[in-house]
């Protein structure tokens, strides 16, 4: 860890839960780095947003240091090492081996400044004291109450109803143990044996050895460009090639105007569809699909140039091949979500961290020893190879212009993520919007083969989209979303700022620059 003596503190934090944002901001006020803030916020998310985060979950992380060096951490969950020929039907049958604690420990050890126990304290305190679920989380909790009751997720219910105030003493205990001893406090020793035994009692296939063996790895870094900016994301562990392909194609097409036009909406949808069609595996699974292209091809400059020409012809009505290609490659899946947080410190270090447990509340069942929600392994359902790591649609992104961080950004929403992130980048880089403006602007997207649009895009855009895609789904201001984006960065004057998507309960905090106390 780095020394905190005379550290300049300050920066910005954006997360999907108010308590998690405050946990990250607390670290910045104490002179912590963006990594300290990200770890504190991620651990607090495991308390404050159990629909989308758990200490037994997974994550993908991209980081940029003060000196402009990039790193990625692959915190993917994994399939257990010993599986029967056919998986059972118990509530924890598809429980994935977690990697969130290992990834957060790695992030802190390599880039943190404050002691891990200090970084962990806000989340443990929150679990002990509890909180009142905010509006969107409360609605998701109520929607999943019956499934949680059926699965035996006792700590997450008060009798059969969502708790008015959520507390979790078992989680608080494990968070403090993590602060004292790192990931081994969860993935090793007696705790690991108790967790594995409990998951097996629920029909899963964990072993203590699996828990200790699933390490956080160095992630694959992808660099690309959009206009005059550098775009950096994680590679095949988080489907970053798809996001890079989208931006690379759009970079060869006209700049976007101040507000979304009907023609621009058609361009975005066509590009998203085409890039989904190019992927080597089906959305919602790792099942190979006919006609899928190699990852390296997706970001090849000659391929991108040819694809941009083909998409232009498609938009102009001279070809329908791109639009038709995607229809047979997408298959419907259950609703899934993730959550994203971004942090930026006074030295310009930034972290983009996306985490997930599968659908809301994961498997909607807890381990009996500690009452935690394991993540669902989607790969176990489609390709249950022992020890294989889960690959999920995460794609955290850092966008820079020279030494300035324009956006440290990511989103929730599975296959909605790349389209939502791409539009946030467009809104800032092409339209010149601030982060808060960029995240409020209406979007179009593609989910489970359906073209979707926010109602706010207006009747002209909706009419043209519906003419080309008759099954258009129009999303109003209710509980549905087209990706939930969080972002931080430097404004035009070089000051840290950020924003949280109004589609969920997220918030942003900016910590003014000051001098942290010496230790």
SSE diagram, text form:
Blueprint: E1 8-15, H1 18-29, H2 34-48, E2 58-64, E3 70-75, H3 100-111, H4 116-129, H5 135-143, H6 145-151, H7 169-181, H8 184-187, H9 189-201, H10 208-213, E4 217-218, E5 221-226, E6 229-234, H11 240-251, H12 262-278, H13 295-298, H14 301-315, H15 321-327, E7 337-345, E8 350-358, H16 378-382, E9 397-401, E10 404-412, H17 416-429, H18 435-440, E11 444-447, E12 450-454, H19 459-468, E13 473-475, E14 484-490, E15 496-500, E16 507-515
Parallel strand pairs: 12-13
Antiparallel strand pairs: 1-7, 1-16, 2-3, 2-8, 3-4, 5-6, 6-9, 7-8, 9-10, 10-14, 11-12, 14-15
Helix pairs in contact: 1-2, 1-4, 2-3, 2-4, 4-7, 11-12, 11-14, 11-17, 12-14, 12-15, 12-19
Report on the architecture of this protein.
With 519 residues, this protein is α+β, with helices and mostly antiparallel strands. It has one domain. Helix content is 38%, strand content 19%. It contains 19 helices and 16 strands. It has helices spanning 18-29, 34-48, 100-111, 116-129, 135-143, 145-151, 169-181, 184-187, 189-201, 208-213, 240-251, 262-278, 295-298, 301-315, 321-327, 378-382, 416-429, 435-440, 459-468, and strands at 8-15, 58-64, 70-75, 217-218, 221-226, 229-234, 337-345, 350-358, 397-401, 404-412, 444-447, 450-454, 473-475, 484-490, 496-500, 507-515. The protein has a 7-stranded antiparallel β-sheet with strand order 4-3-2-8-7-1-16, covered by helices on one side. Strands 5-6-9-10-14-15 form a 6-stranded antiparallel β-sheet. It is globular.
């Amino acid at each position: 860890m780095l020394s905190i003596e005379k550290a300049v503190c300050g920066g910005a934090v954006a997360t999907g839960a108010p308590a998690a944002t405050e946990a990250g901001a607390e670290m910045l006020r104490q002179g912590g780095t963006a990594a300290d803030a990200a770890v504190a916020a991620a651990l607090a998310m495991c308390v404050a947003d159990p629909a989308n985060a758990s200490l037994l979950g997974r994550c993908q992380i991209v980081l940029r240091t003060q000196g402009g060096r990039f790193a990625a951490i692959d915190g993917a969950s994994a399939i257990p090492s010993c599986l029967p020929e056919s998986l059972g039907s118990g509530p924890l049958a598809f429980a994935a081996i977690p990697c969130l604690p290992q990834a957060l420990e790695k992030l802190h050890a390599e880039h943190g400044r404050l002691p891990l126990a200090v970084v962990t304290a806000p989340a443990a305190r929150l679990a002990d004291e509890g909180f009142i679920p905010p509006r969107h989380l409360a609605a998701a909790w109520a929607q999943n109450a019956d499934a949680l009751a059926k699965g035996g997720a006792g700590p997450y219910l008060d009798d059969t109803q969502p708790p008015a105030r959520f507390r979790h003493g078992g989680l608080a205990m494990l968070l403090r143990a993590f602060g004292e001893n790192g990931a081994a406090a969860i993935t090793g020793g007696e705790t690991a044996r108790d967790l594995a035994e409990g998951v097996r009692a629920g029909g899963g296939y964990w072993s203590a050895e699996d828990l200790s063996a699933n390490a956080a790895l160095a992630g694959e870094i992808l660099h690309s460009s959009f206009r005059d900016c550098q775009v950096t994301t994680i590679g095949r562990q988080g489907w970053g090639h798809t996001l890079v392909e989208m931006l690379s194609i759009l970079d060869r097409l006209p700049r976007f105007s101040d507000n979304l036009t009907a023609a621009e909406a058609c361009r975005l949808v066509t590009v998203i569809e085409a890039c989904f069609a190019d992927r080597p595996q089906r959305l919602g699974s790792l099942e190979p699909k006919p006609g899928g292209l190699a990852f390296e091809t997706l970001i090849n400059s000659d391929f991108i140039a040819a694809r941009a020409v083909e998409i232009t012809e498609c938009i102009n009505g001279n070809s329908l091949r791109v639009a038709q290609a995607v229809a047979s490659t997408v298959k419907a899946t259950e609703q899934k979500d993730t959550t994203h947080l971004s942090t930026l410190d006074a030295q310009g270090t930034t972290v983009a961290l996306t985490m997930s447990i599968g659908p809301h509340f994961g498997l909607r069942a807890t381990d009996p020893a500690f009452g935690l929600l394991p993540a669902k392994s989607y790969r176990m359902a489609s390709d249950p190879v022992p020890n294989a790591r889960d690959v999920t649609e995460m794609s955290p992104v850092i966008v820079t212009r020279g030494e300035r961080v324009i956006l440290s950004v990511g989103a929730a929403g599975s296959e909605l993520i790349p389209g939502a992130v791409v539009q946030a980048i467009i809104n800032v880089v092409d339209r010149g919007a601030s982060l808060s403006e960029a995240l409020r602007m209406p979007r179009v997207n593609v989910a489970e083969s359906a073209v979707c649009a926010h109602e706010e895009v207006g009747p002209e855009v909706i009419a043209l989209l519906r003419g080309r895609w008759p099954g258009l789904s129009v999303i109003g201001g209710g509980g549905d979303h087209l990706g939930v984006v969080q972002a931080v960065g430097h404004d035009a004057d070089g000051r840290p700022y950020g924003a949280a998507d109004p589609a969920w309960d997220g918030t942003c905090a900016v910590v003014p620059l000051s001098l942290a106390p010496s230790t």
